[in-house]
Design a protein that fits this description.
The complex is a heterodimer of chains A (310) and B (571). With 310 residues, chain A is mainly alpha-helical. Chain A has two domains: 70 residues, no CATH class; 218 residues, Orthogonal Bundle (MetI-like fold), CATH 1.10.3720.10. Chain A is built from twelve helices and no strands. The N and C termini of chain A lie close together (5 Å). Chain B is α+β, with helices and mostly antiparallel strands and 571 residues long. In chain B, a hairpin with a 2-residue loop joins strand 6 and strand 7. The termini of chain B are far apart. The chains are: A mainly alpha (310), B alpha+beta (571).
């Protein structure tokens, strides 16, 4: 196990390094300049400004410098926000995104599990079809459409929640969290239903039933536990997806989150923020996938990651 | 059995771990939320002085990139600086540059080169006086290569003495032609006489900065609202440097504070039109910009406000694409295209966002002569839609080129509105000019800039907004080999006029005015170097109790110095 983990950690660093490298060169291949009024400056003036930001050096040198700074945890300064360090910006913007992501995930997954279980236990009844319907809605309607709908009805018309902005504490997070929860809800309910149906038809459930276990016991003690395993695998990518996927929601509810900056920085050629946010998201995803892989191997003994002995 | 318990426990652990990982930033975020809540509370304290709460709630569509007047390059920054700081001059409610920190008109030397300003008694928001040195320091700082200012060299080159040499790294920045003679006297030497120099003095780049304060703050200067000093009608508050909300508060140290009625303006950045409109209808915001379908939906709303901007959009005809002559090198072809589409319909039906058809290259409501006549009226309407004239010119052009068919590319933006507009161009031009086929190329802004720099396009839908209140800011674009002339246009007569406008005619205002009108006529109606399309407009929803917001044609977009709230409580 220790050997497996060490190896995986080394791979993680290699993955991270490759992502950083690829992003850096892709970004440099983008048209345009981070200097907003470049077209208004004479070549000498432009050279002075570029020198200030180190843009005058050859790209391999810029790359080496960036990687060295990155190794020391320095993400550099933003171009669009003239004085702001990227690390500070990410930390400032992370809070709201994390709150929305977490709430969306918990809400979505919890409801999804419930819905999936009901569907599996009441197979081919109105409950089953109803839950399938909800799942299809959740998958097929984009979250921003749902967000706009929630905003219009529950904030503007019914005035139950704030329309937008991040000012009324928890209340501000309710509608965006619900909008975000739709995706995970659908995914979770489909997973749970499929697995539960399979598990409920397996031999050991028949055995449990024949031994006289009641319906509740069968469903929760025997079936649900096993059905949960595949869900755990998708939970990681789901969590990461929610963080990155919240950008449209953040824009609609005017929330000072990180997703919103992600898109804007690309439009503005703000190299350091593009790098900072991309690396942050990748690191998050890499770590989550790693955790899931390790724990998944432990949870289900049939899966051997390392092939060797523990 | 034991094994399954471990499985159960571990699954649970994983779920908890995931949530904990996701909660990393939670505590901090909650703190800040409570923080804002408390601050929100204090802002609602009733105002004693006014009958009504003089509070505005506004929306911005972008964050503040910087509040350092030496570094600012964007609309939001210039807009706020105009409200929290004040230079030698300020644009009045009538959009005329009037003395502000300058105590009356400056003394001007006979050759028009040396301006001596006497400063009025005024204070920074910390109570220290605004001195002549604050101007000298700020301007030199903007020229200091270490500051790496973009607008410093851009605005000062060719205007303030030695600025051109400094920005070409041929001279020390300390040699800039600005000098504090004493505490209250500022002497500015120009490179050449500049007729619009005083209106430049209202521009953000020429604002003062308090040397002692800037030096003391060091790296931290302008990082947030506490790391700044203000000498304008308002002070900035609750701005953390990158955040989506901030506040303007009445500046009690402002020399003209009696005029300022608003006590507070609350800003939030909202990028979605739908959200802005929802906040407006909920009464949380007093003004909301409309775009796209919202502009049409609210076209008849009684709370709709239209504003004409001073940005002009035009066909940029490239005569030489990557070293090779294009059909647009033929003046008749350019004339045909300039006249072959209905601009009126384009503005009112296709755009329908408050924009107006443009029949000139200099926008209307931008510059006026001493009697208040709009420069726009001198030349009358040029390049008017006329299908017959267009067709005649087209056929003449085709026969000169010895062809019967032409295929031309139009390079435009990739926004929904741009695409709609491009389709309209294609339909109109192909319909009115037989033998023409238009291909559309729609790319993001950065890509377009790149293609423009490499001169890799046929016709580009381009736009330009003024940097100072003089037609020259538009006319100078088409100087032979000029930095923005990425279309190989060259006319010696036009170049001569440009030289005269800012040279021999600089002190002869009426003759200069005429020369500028002539130059405009050459590019729009004789050479058809560019084809004006529309002058951009804005549409807003604005609550009827909001009064006195002044929109400006250049520099900061709005002034709130004269704004107030009236009749809100009665509703």
């Amino acid at each position: 196990m220790a050997k497996f983990i060490t190896r995986r950690v080394i791979y993680m660093f290699i993955t991270f390094f490759l992502i950083a490298t690829a992003t850096f060169f892709l970004m440099k291949a983008l048209p345009g300049s981070p200097i907003s009024s470049a077209s208004k400056l004479s070549p000498t003036q432009l050279a002075i400004v570029e020198a200030k930001y180190g843009l005058d050096q050859p790209i391999p040198v810029q790359y080496a410098k960036y990687m060295l700074n990155l190794a020391q945890g320095d993400l550099g300064n933003s171009f669009q926000f003239k004085n702001a360090s990227v690390t500070d910006l990410i930390i400032d913007r992370l809070g709201p995104s994390m709150i929305l992501g977490t709430q969306g995930l918990v809400l979505g997954v919890t409801l999804g599990i419930l819905l999936g279980m009901i569907a599996a236990l009441r197979q081919n009844t109105i409950w089953d079809y109803g839950s399938t319907f909800v799942a299809i809605i959740g998958i097929s309607i984009p979250s921003f459409v749902f967000a706009t709908f929630l905003q219009y009805w529950f904030a503007v018309k019914l005035e139950l929640f704030p329309v937008a902005l991040w000012k009324d504490g928890w209340m501000s997070s309710v509608l965006p969290s619900i909008a975000l929860a739709m995706g995970p809800l659908a995914t979770a309910s489909r997973f749970i239903r499929t697995e539960m149906v399979e598990v409920l038809n397996s031999d050991y459930i028949t055995l449990a039933k024949s031994k006289g276990a009641n319906g509740f016991e069968v469903a929760f003690k025997h079936a649900f536990r096993n059905a949960l395993i595949p869900l755990v695998t998708v939970l990681g990518p789901l969590a990461a997806g929610l963080l990155t996927g919240s950008l449209v929601i953040e824009q609609i509810f005017a929330i000072p989150g990180i997703g919103e900056q992600f898109v804007k920085s690309i439009m503005a050629n703000d190299f350091s923020i593009i790098m900072g946010t991309t690396l942050f998201f990748s690191a998050f995803l890499i770590v989550v996938i790693f955790l899931v892989d390790v724990l998944y191997g432990i949870i289900d003994p049939r899966i051997r990651l390392s092939g060797g002995k523990d | 059995m034991k094994n399954s318990k471990i499985v159960w426990l571990l699954s649970l652990l994983l779920v908890v771990a995931l949530f904990l990982a996701a909660c990393g930033g939670d505590d901090k975020a909650k703190e800040t939320t409570t923080d804002t809540d408390e601050k929100e509370g204090t802002t609602e304290e009733p105002e004693v002085a006014a009958d009504e709460d003089q509070v505005l709630n506004l929306i911005m569509t972008a964050e503040i990139p910087t509040m350092d007047s030496a570094l600012v390059t964007d609309a939001v920054g210039f807009d706020l600086l105009n409200n929290v700081n004040e230079g030698l001059y300020r644009l009045s409610q009538e959009n005329i540059a009037v003395p502000a920190i300058s105590d009356g008109e400056p003394k001007v030397s006979e050759d028009g080169l040396v301006y001596t300003f006497t400063l009025r008694d005024s204070n920074w928001s910390d109570g220290t006086p605004v001195t002549a040195n604050d101007f000298e320091y700020a301007w030199k700082r903007a020229m200091n290569p270490d500051t790496a200012s973009e607008y410093g060299p851009y605005m000062m080159s060719g205007v303030i003495k030695n600025a051109t040499a400094i920005s070409n790294a041929e001279m020390e920045y300390t040699e800039l032609g600005v000098k504090a003679v004493d505490e209250k006297t500022l002497e500015v030497t120009l490179e050449k006489p500049i007729p619009y120099f005083l209106s430049l003095m209202s521009f953000g780049t020429f604002l003062p900065q308090n040397e002692a304060f800037v030096t003391a703050q060091g790296e931290n200067y302008a990082k947030n609202s506490d790391a700044l000093l203000y000498n304008g009608p308002f002070t900035l508050a609750k701005w953390d440097g990158t955040g989506l909300s901030w506040q303007l508060l009445k500046n009690e140290e402002y020399w003209d504070k009696e005029t300022v009625k608003l006590t507070e303006i609350n800003y939030d950045v909202v990028k979605e039109t739908a959200t802005a409109v929802n906040l407006y209808s909920n009464g949380e915001k007093d003004r909301a910009g409309l775009s796209g379908e919202y502009a049409m939906q609210y076209a008849a709303d009684p709370e709709l406000v239209k504003e004409q901007e001073t940005s002009v959009f035009y066909f940029k005809y490239n005569q030489e694409r990557v070293g090779e002559k294009t059909p647009l090198a033929n003046v008749n072809i350019r004339e045909a295209i300039s006249k072959a589409f209905n601009k009126e319909d384009l503005a009112t039906v296709v755009l329908a966002n408050g924009s107006t058809a443009a029949y000139s290259f200099i926008p209307s409501n931008f510059v006026f002569d001493e009697e208040g006549n709009d420069f726009r009226e001198v030349n009358g309407d040029m390049a008017v839609f006329n299908a017959d004239e267009a067709k005649t010119a087209w056929e003449k052009g085709l026969s000169e080129l010895g062809v019967t068919e032409l295929s031309i590319e139009i390079l435009g933006g990739d926004t929904e509105l741009s695409k709609k507009m491009d389709e309209y161009f294609k339909a109109q031009l192909e319909g009115n000019l037989p033998g023409l086929s238009i291909t559309l190329k729609e790319v993001p802004f950065n890509v377009r800039l790149d293609l423009d720099t490499n001169q890799d396009y046929d016709i580009q839908v381009a736009g330009w907004g003024p940097d100072y209140q003089d037609p020259f800011t538009f006319l100078s674009l088409w100087e032979t080999d000029g930095g923005n002339n990425q279309m190989s246009y060259s006319n010696p007569e036009y170049d001569k006029l440009l030289t005269d406008i800012n040279g021999s005619l600089a002190l002869d205002i009426p003759a200069r005015w005429e020369a500028m009108a002539k130059a405009e006529n050459i590019i729009v109606d004789q050479d058809f170097a560019v084809g004006p399309i529309y002058q951009r407009g804005l549409m807003f929803l604005q609550k009827p109790y909001v009064k006195g917001i002044v929109a400006h044609p250049f520099g900061g977009d709005y002034s709130y110095k004269w704004a107030y709230v009236e009749g809100k409580d009665a509703k």
